[in-house]
TrEMBL record:
Species name: Izhakiella capsodis
Identification of the protein by name: Glutamate-1-semialdehyde 2,1-aminomutase
SUPFAM superfamilies attached to this UniProt entry: PLP-dependent transferases
Principal place of residence: cytoplasm
Reaction it catalyzes: (S)-4-amino-5-oxopentanoate = 5-aminolevulinate
Length: 427
């Protein structure tokens, strides 16, 4: 029995499913999850000391690679001054200045502790500001596990086949209207039906929780126009895409200006951090300047701020996103070529440092319905065979993959060579 197997057996007695977040349990692919002992650069090392090239990157935050010295040193230095004060610090001002500089649509920002808190708070703010209750989200998009957002959600909610979780009152869910990603007519139909009731649209600007689906060129600008026409706010959820697709996020890449932005993952450099922010007039409606309540004992935590600040400063260096995108393109092309050699139908979507693999005969994959037509069984076999070859991909056909700046051409060539061996067995 491997150490991971032993640990998983113990964990299942003590923690539901043996994990503190569902997808980690390999529910999407079957088998025993690896217990990770340490990580460095592009590599993960499990409890049995096997090494893996990692394309999960802690589900997004580790864009610089694991155990990056700038972040590690910032955390150690901050820890020598105390772990939490529950009072304002200079670092929070520095962090707010940096984030609002990098994401110009954010006049003001508030820090929270997770992506879930960021989206939940942004939606409360949008509702409070507009005096409306309803919101629009898209099928297959995931915005954290707040009640009103667990409706036709992606990520683990998709993997587990529980788009509507028990425990979410129907009275909450009824305010959530679900439209089709990349389909503006479905959004117009929702607005036409409820012209004065919709507070906001929340959207993943590149969907990363139903695998990886980029927006069609007209989609995000179209959402902006519909929000303006019907007096709703546009919330762009950049928890995954922020500082990953481009330095200014997907909103910079696709040139669309939201009213509010949600951030998470990379903004904490690996520490638990989220943030939301946007137009000054809207943000001023938050307590204590305004009536919309939102708070957090550990929000703006000094260690988390130090980690995030160090991470963002590294990302500010020129050429970083060209490198990240170049590496991702190289991986995507390598995998496509290898699949073609073996007659395996494969679609690869990629933007900036994120990518998605789809085993499908289709030419393109543009919405949730397309994703559901992919060959999940083939993905499961592919996943396990790649793992045997030392490549750690997201353990679900419904999750995006993440490149880091610590990956190099050799890592990518090794990954493609592994995939070539695996494709030969998949036919
Ligand atoms: N929004 C998006 C787009 C996400 O991808 C996620 C998490 N994967 C969340 C929100 C929730 O973030 P967290 O898991 O930190 O609560």
């Amino acid at each position: 029995m491997s150490k991971s197997e032993k640990l998983f057996a113990q964990a299942q007695q003590l923690i539901p499913g043996g994990v503190n977040s569902p997808v980690r349990a390999f529910t999407g692919v079957g088998g025993v999850p690896l217990f990770i002992e340490r990580a460095n650069g592009a590599y993960l090392y499990d409890a049995d000391d096997n090494a893996y090239i990692d394309y999960v990157g802690s589900w997004g935050p580790m864009v610089l690679g694991h155990n990056h010295p700038a972040i590690r040193n910032a955390v150690i230095e901050a820890a020598t001054h105390g772990l939490s004060f529950g009072a304002p610090t200079a670092m929070e001002v520095d962090m707010a200045r940096l984030v609002t500089e990098l994401v110009p649509s954010m006049d003001m920002v508030r820090m929270v502790n997770s992506g879930t808190e960021a989206t939940m708070s942004a939606i409360r703010l949008a509702r409070g500001f507009t005096g409306r209750d309803k919101l629009i989200k898209f099928e297959g998009c995931y915005h954290g596990h707040a009640d009103h957002l667990l409706v036709k959600a992606g990520s683990g909610a998709l993997t587990l086949g529980q788009p509507n979780s028990p425990g979410v009152p129907a009275d909450f869910a009824k305010h959530t209207l679900t439209c089709t990603y990349n389909d503006l007519s479905s959004v117009r139909a929702a607005f036409t039906q409820h012209p004065h009731e919709i507070a906001c649209i929340i959207v993943e600007p590149v969907a990363g929780n139903m695998n990886c689906i980029p927006p069609e060129p007209a989609f995000l600008p179209g959402l902006r126009r519909l929000c303006d026409e019907f007096g709703a706010l546009l919330i762009i959820d950049e928890v995954m895409t922020g500082f990953r697709v481009a330095l200014g996020g997907a909103q910079e890449w696709y040139d669309v200006t939201p009213d509010l932005t949600c951030l998470g993952k990379i903004i904490g450099g690996g520490m638990p951090v989220g943030a939301f922010g946007g137009r000054r007039d809207i943000m001023m409606a938050l307590a204590p300047t305004g009536p919309v309540y939102q708070a957090g004992t550990l929000s703006g935590n000094p260690i988390a701020m130090a980690a995030g600040y160090a991470c963002l400063n590294e990302l500010k260096q020129t050429g970083v996103y060209e490198t990240l995108t170049g590496l991702t393109n190289q991986l995507a092309q390598g995998l496509l070529d290898a699949a073609k050699e073996h007659g395996i139908p494969l679609v690869v979507n990629n933007v900036g440092g994120m990518f998605g693999l789809f085993f499908t005969e289709a030419e393109r994959v543009t919405c949730y319905a397309d994703v559901t037509r992919c060959d999940v069984e083939r993905f499961k076999r592919f996943f396990h065979l790649m793992l045997e070859q030392g490549v750690y991909l997201a353990p679900s056909a419904f999750e995006a993959g993440f490149m880091s700046l610590a990956h190099n051409e050799q890592d990518i060539n090794d990954t493609v060579a592994a995939a070539r061996r695996v494709f030969a067995k998949l036919t």
